[in-house]
Specification:
mainly alpha, two-stranded antiparallel ribbon
Length: 331
C-alpha cells in the first residue's frame, strides 16, 4: 500500500514514477517515506535512492506516488494565482518599476514612512494571504515561523533563521503604498531585457508593452544591460524582495550582508531554481546561488497548514528579533 508515501521528485526526472508499472509502485520500499529519498527502478525493482546534495538543492518539487506535484504546481493553480501572474506580467514594465522604486526609496531616505518594529509588521502579515502562492492558505505570519523553524531544524545559524523569519515582510508595502498584489508578490525577474522562458506563466508577457515588438530594445537577451554586470545592477520587477532589502539598507540592524542578499533575491526562482540569467550573474551572484537554494529549501518545503506550539515559538522568535533589530525601522 503506497498511501501516504511522500517522494522527492528530482526535477531532471519528474516523470520517473509514471514509467513504473502498478506492480512496481506497490513494491516501493517503506523507507521511501523519508522525505530525502526518491525512487528509482534498479534491475526492474523500485529502490529508494539517496539523492546527491546537488539534486536536493536543485529540486523544488515533491511528489505523491502518482507523480502529483505538491509544491509550486502552477498547472493546477487556482484562477486567483493565474490572474495575479497575468496582471504581473502585463504591467511590470521598466517604466513602472522605476516609478515605484523611486517612490519607496525616496520615502526611506527621508524617513517619512511609519516607524514600526519588525514584530508589529509581522503581526500585520497575520492577516495577509499571498494570492500568487499555490501551496498554502496559511497567513504569512504562520509561514514566517514555519520557515524559521525549518532552518533551525536543519542546523542553520541563528542569523539564517532570523532572515527566514523576516524574509517576506516586504509585503507590508501592499498596505503602505496601496499596491495590488501583482506588484508585491510572486517570482521576480529583471525588466529591461527579454524574460526567460523559465518564468512562471511566461505566455502572459505577450501583453506587456515592453515586449510587444520583436524590435524592442527590451526584447533582447541583454536588453539595456551588459553581460555579467551583476544582479545589483539590474532592475527587477517590483516586489517585496527589493522593498525589504531597501528598508534594511536604510535602517540599523544586526544581520550580516549575506542575509540582505538572500532577502533581495529569494523570489528570483528563474535564477536559483532554473539556472536562467547566468549571463547577468557576477562572481558574487554565482557564489551565493547555493546559499539561495538552501534558503529556498526552508522557505518552500516548510509550508503546511499546521503549526505546533505557536505560543512557545512566538516567545522564542520575539527574543531573537529584539537581538537582531534592537530599534524600530522606518518603512
Amino acid at each position: 500500500n503506497t498511501t501516504g508515501i511522500s517522494l522527492l521528485c528530482i526535477s531532471s526526472t519528474p516523470s520517473h514514477l509514471n514509467s513504473m508499472t502498478s506492480t512496481q509502485v506497490e513494491q516501493i520500499p517503506h523507507n521511501a517515506t523519508d522525505q530525502h529519498l526518491h525512487v528509482s527502478v534498479v534491475n526492474g525493482t523500485p529502490t529508494a535512492v539517496e539523492p546527491s546534495q546537488n539534486e536536493l538543492l536543485h529540486s523544488d518539487e515533491r511528489c505523491t506516488p502518482n507523480g502529483t506535484h505538491l509544491f509550486r504546481s502552477y498547472d493546477t493553480a487556482s484562477d486567483m494565482v493565474r490572474k495575479t501572474y497575468a496582471l504581473n506580467h502585463k504591467y511590470q514594465t521598466l517604466d513602472y518599476v522605476l516609478e515605484q522604486k523611486n517612490k519607496y526609496i525616496k520615502r526611506l531616505k527621508t524617513k517619512k514612512g511609519p516607524n514600526k518594529s519588525i514584530w508589529e509588521v509581522l503581526e500585520y502579515l497575520s492577516t495577509f494571504h499571498d494570492e500568487s502562492d499555490p501551496d498554502t492558505e496559511s497567513s504569512q505570519m504562520i509561514h514566517a515561523i514555519q520557515s524559521a523553524e525549518a532552518a533551525r531544524q536543519k542546523g542553520h545559524p541563528e542569523w539564517f533563521q532570523v532572515t527566514l523569519l523576516v524574509h517576506d515582510l516586504g509585503k507590508y508595502m501592499s498596505l503602505l503604498d496601496g499596491l495590488p498584489q501583482w506588484s508585491v508578490v510572486g517570482d521576480i525577474f529583471p525588466v529591461g531585457a527579454a524574460p526567460a522562458k523559465s518564468i512562471v506563466y511566461h505566455e502572459y508577457f505577450a501583453e506587456n508593452p515592453d515586449f510587444a515588438s520583436e524590435d524592442s530594445k527590451y526584447n533582447t537577451k541583454l536588453g539595456i544591460y551588459e553581460e555579467h554586470c551583476g544582479f545589483e545592477n539590474l532592475h527587477f520587477s517590483v516586489g517585496h524582495d527589493d522593498y525589504l532589502y531597501q528598508v534594511l539598507s536604510h535602517n540599523t540592524h544586526n544581520l550580516p550582508e549575506e542575509a540582505l542578499y538572500l532577502i533581495r533575491y529569494h523570489s528570483f526562482y528563474p535564477w536559483h531554481r532554473d539556472f536562467s540569467y547566468d549571463h547577468f550573474a557576477s562572481e558574487k551572484d554565482f557564489k551565493m546561488r547555493e546559499k539561495l537554494q538552501q534558503f529556498s529549501q526552508c522557505d518552500l518545503y516548510s509550508k503546511t497548514d499546521v503549526v505546533d506550539s505557536l505560543d512557545n515559538l512566538t516567545t522564542r522568535y520575539k527574543a531573537l528579533l529584539e537581538k537582531y533589530f534592537p530599534e524600530n525601522l522606518h518603512w
